[in-house]
Amino acid sequence: MTDLAPGTETLRERAVTSLVTARDRTTLLTECVDEPDLTAQHSPLMSPLVWDLAHIGNQEEQWLLRAVAGQEALRPEIDSLYDAFEHPRAERPRLPLLPPDEARRYAAEVRGRALDVLESAAFDGTRLTEAGFAFGMIAQHEQQHDETMLITHQLRKGPQALTAPDPDPVPLFAGPSEVLVPGGPFTMGTSTEPWALDNERPAHVREVAPFWIDTTPVTNAAYLAFVEDGGYRDPRWWTPEGWAHIRRNSITAPLFWRLDGGQWLRRRFGLTEVVPPDEPVLHVCWYEADAYARWAGRRLPTEAEWEKAARYDPAGDRSMRYPWGDADPGPEHANLGQRHLRPAPAGSYPAGASPLGVRQLIGDVWEWTASDFLPYPGFQAFPYREYSEVFFGSDYKVLRGGSFAVDPVACRGTFRNWDYPIRRQIFSGFRTARSEDV
């Protein structure tokens, strides 16, 4: 490779590493179970694992081989099978999907060709190839489906198929329970992050009134106090929609929790264990998070408040890439990348704290915010409307910060996730806030 623009080799290496890391994880998630588990639908909310596997390859083919390299389609007849909008998840098991071995061969052939394309790609010219965007987009797409497949593993019945070391134990967090975030303007979103997706753009100024935010995510112990105080039986804490939802579905605790002989247990990737009191609460929907906040005399932070708490540096009066600064995440900063199969105890990763002292804003659990998923001023869909534009509106609530299941390539201080307020199978938790004068 010669005549590279400054920084091109670094971008190329980053793209290769990101693609290889994602594929290694996909392989782990699809080879740790037998073929029946790959082709089964473990929940109507999720695709069969084999659908995700071939969909990953098909998206990579469409964008890197066809759109970037201009190559002819390898398997045009399967495009519609793996179109997420054409076939809802509940219908996918009935489609003539590629069997596991064929799906693996297809994804491997696409990957080999994509790496050849990457080896000689020019990271300039079109917006799709500038700074290697298309390669970063595909790496993020695969990692997002890896998280989806990990959710499927959590939902599947049967013995444990995945293992990982637990996070390091830490002393019980004894710091302040909340932090004051100063009011005033800050820059939200980004116009410079090369692999940021369309809904993170453009950077714009937001005015935020001063507010208090929890230093750590809400823990299982704190949430259990809400449960044992009758929170699920008291309509005062719930929106009308939330109250109707939990009554209709007989919800009385976070998903995967059960009471056994006076002790709360949870199921986690095939294991049953005592609910750990110091971990951030996991598998709660937006309605549950909102109800807890009301019960506690607080509220969920808005998306803008969450991002200011996560990115604002008062000393430099600027927005950083991450709470700890502009450096990419390291293992000392956050619980990311499926290194562990659970959140770390509240108060972990002091090196990842924001300048104001807020902890665990990145990794561990996705955090529900009060905000609907809406476009930023000046939003432009790129490279296709179906990534985020079609989801804008009041049907979806924004989640921020990532979880232990998110790879660093798909997690930034500006990264936006969204889902229906009823969703609980996702790795979701929350922290609460209050206005300064409350």
From TrEMBL:
Gene3D superfamilies tied to this protein: dinb family like domain, paralog of FGE (formylglycine-generating enzyme)
Enzyme type, top EC level: oxidoreductase
Any Pfam family hit: FGE-sulfatase
Protein name, per record: Hercynine oxygenase
Matching InterPro entries: CTDL_fold (IPR016187), DinB-like (IPR024775), DinB/YfiT-like (IPR034660), EgtB (IPR017806), EgtB_Actinobacteria (IPR032890), Sulfatase_Mod_Factor_Kinase (IPR051043), SUMF_dom (IPR005532), SUMF_sf (IPR042095)
KW Metal-binding (keyword) present: yes
Source domain of life: Bacteria
Pathway(s) of this molecule: Amino-acid biosynthesis; ergothioneine biosynthesis
Cofactor: Fe(2+)
Reactions mediated catalytically: gamma-L-glutamyl-L-cysteine + hercynine + O2 = gamma-L-glutamyl-hercynylcysteine S-oxide + H2O
Binding, Fe cation: 55, 141, 145
Function: Catalyzes the oxidative sulfurization of hercynine (N-alpha,N-alpha,N-alpha-trimethyl-L-histidine) into hercynyl-gamma-L-glutamyl-L-cysteine sulfoxide, a step in the biosynthesis pathway of ergothioneine.
All copies of domain DinB-like, residue ranges: 19-149
Sequence positions that bind gamma-L-glutamyl-L-cysteine: 89-92, 419, 423
